[in-house]
Amino acid sequence: xxxxxxxxxxxxxxxxxxxxxxxxxxxxxxxxxxxxxxxxxxxxxxxxxxxxxxxxxxxxxxxxxxxxxxxxxxxxxxxxxxxxxxxxxxxxxxxxxxxxxxxxxxxxxxxxxxxxxxxxxxxxxxxxxxxxxxxxxxxxxxxxxxxxxxxxxxxxxxxxxxxxxxxxxxxxxxxxxxxxxxxxxxxxxxxxxxxxxxxxxxxxxxxxx
Length: 209
Description:
By secondary structure, this protein is α/β, with parallel strands linked by helices. The chain is built from 9 helices and 8 strands.
């Protein structure tokens, strides 16, 4: 088996990237794929909470990299019947605890066992971004239709392409049709013309989130 490693990134925090990672992972697993999601946001992990697995963490990503545990020991299986696993980030370390090469090697091992390896990238473009993107063959950018988020997404696209991750895909989150109609929010065509990347998902705003 040779799986695909896909990084989900955003540039700007708070746009729903981690939730998107969990939802995409769940959707792929429900279709019968073997999926592992990797939280690389060292010091600020959230993927475990979104997936409801926070009380089952024994080992984490840094433990694997440092050799404290085996890769399989850090994997937490989802509570449902399908093949979905989480490797959580360390909560008490910093992003310099791992290198791009180490994460790349770990994901190469995971690709032998899983159809999809989804990496939840930290916000920003610092070391955590470099670690996460180095391990991936494909990238999905999550953004919202706001000027600041689009500007950050544009910068991320440039960084991804310069690092060899060409033709990233885009998910636009929290689109409010009423605001679009009033001209208070960019629509799909506006974002498409600004970023010139393929949009693979449109997620409407939810007043409950």
